[in-house]
Amino acid sequence: MRERMPHHIGFIPDGNRRWAVANGLSKEHGYAYGLAPGLALFEECRRRGIGEASVYGFTKDNTRRTSVQLEHFREACVHFALAAAERGAALLVVGDDESGCFPAELKRFRRRSAGDIRVNFLVNYGWDWDLDGLRAGGGLRSAEVSRLDLVVRWGGGRRLSGFLPIQAVYADFFVIDDYWPDYRPAHLDAALSWYAQQDRTLGG
Amino acid sequence: MRERMPHHIGFIPDGNRRWAVANGLSKEHGYAYGLAPGLALFEECRRRGIGEASVYGFTKDNTRRTSVQLEHFREACVHFALAAAERGAALLVVGDDESGCFPAELKRFRRRSAGDIRVNFLVNYGWDWDLDGLRAGGGLRSAEVSRLDLVVRWGGGRRLSGFLPIQAVYADFFVIDDYWPDYRPAHLDAALSWYAQQDRTLGG
Fold it and tell me: Which of 48-77 (B) contact A at CB < 8 A?
């Protein structure tokens, strides 16, 4: 039997700092360990024929953290984005590129690159910044990002933390207790199996 | 030890139709069985000192259901609103009152009534209708509704279904598998105990 698959999945890779502390590292060293899992998940989505994936890099809220943490998560995000683009993702970086917190290396991805699987990578993203597009008389600043079918979060938190609130209005929400650096393909399996059992009403 | 309490809780009382069918009734008869639990939950929130509660009545999406269902859930919503106001809630009804689906009896509650616990009751509400306030150059149409700390949903669904997406950006999300008409005070206990164990970062 062919399972009902989500077209567009959102990923919230949380728990890097808790993973670092649990593994005897200082908090900021957790982010680098999220990179290889990110690329593994990307390839797993592509293999399964997922059309679009949105991934939380960092938010404007996150930039209130210590400068050493900021430096490390910016670096991890730049590496992930460049590696995903190199592997052929149709990459769009969504976030406030007018702020100094936005990595200059990613400015060119504010327009989507050519590729196959659409990857929307949220970098210096803010839900309020996103809505400001409406206030300015246009569309959402994330208008190129389609409606989410499923949101998967690692690290046990049962909240969106500002993740694409408008695209997520009808999304099903699946939570994994493991920290993000402990990602395994079985996590995605579990999320997709669960999703296939949910009814889809789109609010009706 | 005094537990950390949410100031503002959102309630999504889902599962009325499934409850009806499971109890040998036709779907539309489930809504009336949601009324007494709603008033019990209201009194429980007041007793515990919750400052503000937002409750899903029905949405613009829901009005696509059969006319017999529409008639029944509109009636249940009118009864709940009038009873809550009579019991002294500071009631605000939030929804599109320019549509024929909005019950005329509730128009006067588009301005908040005098009372103690703030109750925001979503009637003919739509997330897109809410955002239209921003598009029109003002604030959200739900601008009087504060940020949500916790959202509790009955009926097993792990989704917001368009429930106050902007107020919910940082909310913790607790799901109860029982159908809404089977509400018991232990459900609220479970949600509050769980909430007290979550860290609060507001996206930081």
Answer: 59, 61-62, 64-65
